[in-house]
Amino acid sequence: MNPACRLCAAPLTRTFVDLGMSPPCESYLRPDQLDEPETTYSLHVRICERCLLVQLPAHVAAEEIFTADYAYFSSYSDSWVAHAGRFVDDMAARLGLGAGSFVVEAASNDGYLLQHAVARGIRVLGVEPCGGVADAARALGVPTESVFLGERTGTEIAERHGPADLVVANNVLAHVPDLLDFVRGLRALVADGGTVSLEFPHLLRLIEGRQYDTIYHEHYSYFTLRTAAAALAAAGLAVVDVEELSTHGGSLRVLARPGEQRPSEMVEKVLADERAAGLHTVEGHTGFAQEVFEVKAGLLEFLLTAAREGRSVAGYGAPGKGNTLLNHCGVREDLLPFTVDRNPHKHGMHLPGTHIPVHPPERLAEVRPDYILILPWNLRAEIAQQIAYTREWGARLVVPIPRLEFV
Ligand SMILES: [Zn+2]
Q1: Which of 129, 155, 168, 364 is positioned for an S-S bond with 188, CB 3.0–4.6 A?
Q2: Of 244, 276, 308, which residue constitutes the final position of a domain?
Q3: What is the DSSP letter of 266?
Q4: 283 burial class (0-12, 13-18, 19+ CB within 10 angstroms)?
């Protein structure tokens, strides 16, 4: 039986891209787990022929991933905290937020964003289902409710705390399995004259940049401005403005308000860009599977040629996106003997599915590989600087996406 669209409930009969079966991309393995069976889930992404939402059915439930010991603390990334600080400055200026205002954030994580509003004397509330990160937020002075946001919880919170002038839902929309319940929760939280702000990766950039490694099990929905506006409209929210950001390979920041609204020129511009790329039709989405094949062919040709010529290759980085890529391409230790990563929690671990070992970066200077394959391509400039010393022995840096390229 075909799964149903999470936005309009039509049966999903058409493939956007099928990356096969893969283990969850953050389930790194200890050496003693390597002989055990691994659970894999489908990465078969569909497009709805009725509403055009590109989506992955929620094979892995959000509750399994975002549990109490969920380890992702946003504050670990300095650049991310700075991005959040600029966001709060922008919104405070634009909406005139001050001491009498109330700001709520859905998926507020460890308070990395709301702490900037607290510093301005603005009343805030975080909504964060993961117990561990919610505790960290409270320690920063950010009051936090540990629930998933939906229509019921949003209504209850608004009854207790009052409606919000600003509801922030940055980088969460793509990760909610029950999309309609979530956007209704946003509507329940926001005041009739208030604003909702959302950030999410832009499907137009994913397609243009062949960023297929950003497809993973917890990334349930892949939005254009058109489909995001349709989801918001289902809850009575209208898009008023949009901004294009460079985060996550190219994201949109969308502002929406309750009721009828007049969209900005920028909204018309982004919708026109999407139409020019064909993303207003089902057919306009159908070339992506071939683009993905080209990336796979380029990477495998490079690795096979290097192996035949007796040249050594090492990886740099062990990001979740690298696991989508390596599993889809079927790369194992015979083609990529190891990768290195700066995160000490990953040292001595093995990548899910491919079982490629992860070492500290110092291993590069010991092994002196001929080629270094940069898996987090979005950080290629930063990484090329960090490992500039590898040029001493003539190592060449390689990125696999959007096409195989020597840096
Ligand atoms: Zn649909």
Answers
A1: 155
A2: 276
A3: H
A4: exposed
pLDDT for 70: 45
User: What is the reported pLDDT for 63?
Assistant: 58
Which of 276, 297, 315 is at the close of a domain? 276
Same domain, yes or no: 220 and 295:
no
How remote is the CA of residue 6 from the centroid of ligand 1, in Å?
7
Give the distance (Å) from ligand 1 centre to CA of residue 12. 8
The range of the structural domain enclosing residue 82 comes to 65-276
261 and 353 together in one domain: no
CATH number of the domain that residue 101 is part of: 3.40.50.150
The overall longest dimension of the chain from CA atoms, in Å, is: 68
The two tokens of residue 36 are 């055990």
Contact criterion met (CB below 8 Å) for 262 and 240: yes
pLDDT averages per 10-residue partition of the chain, 407 residues: 93 97 91 96 97 92 53 66 92 95 95 95 95 90 95 98 97 94 98 97 97 93 98 98 91 96 96 98 95 97 98 95 95 98 93 97 97 93 94 97 95
pLDDT for 204 equals 98
Could you give the CA distance from residue 277 to residue 34 in angstroms, rounded to a whole number?
A: 44
What is the Å distance from ligand 1's center to 358 Cα? 40
User: How many angstroms separate the alpha carbon of residue 49 from the centre of ligand 1?
Assistant: 7
371 and 237 share a domain?
Answer: no
Inter-residue contact 284 to 312 (CB < 8 Å): no
Residue 49 domain-assigned (yes or no): no
